[in-house]
Each structure stands twice: as C-alpha cells, then as structure tokens.
Amino acid sequence: xAQIVVDVMPKPEILDPQGKAVTGxxxxxxxxxxxxxxxxxxxIEVEGEITPERLEQxxxxxxxxxxxxxxxxxxxxxxx
Length: 80
Prior knowledge:
This protein is α+β, with helices and mostly antiparallel strands. Helix content is 34%, strand content 29%.
C-alpha cells in the first residue's frame, strides 16, 4: 500500500519545551553538541497509486487539521 508522510515541526521562533527536555537529557547522558526539536509525523496509507490529487488531499488535510499553521510548519511527501 502506498504512503504519504506529513512531518509537522514547530516554527523556529516557537519555544519547544519537549525538544529542550530531550536536549538536556542527551547532554546528561554525555551526548554533547546536539540540539533537538520535537515534532509529529503522520503516515497516511493510500489505496492504489499516489497521484497529484492524493498529494493535494494530504496537503489540504495537513493545512486544515494535522498542523497548527500559526505555530507549526509541515512538509507533505511520498513515503518510503
């Protein structure tokens, strides 16, 4: 089955407390020089082939439901 992936991330200017917590935990574990921002990944299973129309549907879904476009950016792509 084909797959479309929507990756949602906080905009760079938005605080990311979860990412900061993970960054701090990594530092305590000895991993230095790393900075984490935490987002969300949606995997959409598509019956049949992925067409431009299906990608447009995913784009509309991301813009209206999957991401809060005031504080988040998103990328729609064909999955692996």
